[in-house]
Amino acid sequence: MKPLLLVDGYNVIGAWNVPRAERLSIEEARDRLVHLIADYAGYSGEEVIVVFDGHYTDRPTRSRMNVHGVEVVFTKHAESADNYIEAACEAAPKWRRVRVATSDAVEQTVTLGRGAVRISSREFLLELTQVRAAGRGHMREERVSRGDILSRLPPHQREIFDRMRKGEE
Fold first, then answer.
1. pTM
2. How far is CA 113 from CA 22, 38, 156, in A?
3. Taking 70 as the threshold, does the pLDDT of residue 154 lie above it?
4. Of the candidates 100, 98, 105, 107, the residue with the CA atom closest to the CA atom of residue 80
């Protein structure tokens, strides 16, 4: 089972300077964050759930959607992202590695008490950037080193194919 990363979405957006610098609406910031996290999840190998508060909305039920392999949850009215994350930590098997990305001090304490590892929103944003950069660098190296299929074969096999191509075998 993959490690689990639970992200308090609005908390991370609050720590992120991009939405303010680019004057993004909350919807644009949310969409951009989810897409960045989906990219990150592909490189990190973690199962990621991003949770957004519905606490101050009139949404009667919780809603979920999958965006490029990342589960995005909007909590229902009177349910905070913190409540959802705490319950998810509690429900996870004790042997499963669970991390929580939030800067909410109370939430960090509660999730630590439930066996999860906490990471602040700023630390998570830094990790997100570093993992994505390292992953893209690795992909570029792989693309360059791949070349054609013959370049990946051992020398003796290349000789055999070269002789076959020339009609010598």
1. 0.76
2. 37, 28, 58
3. yes
4. 107
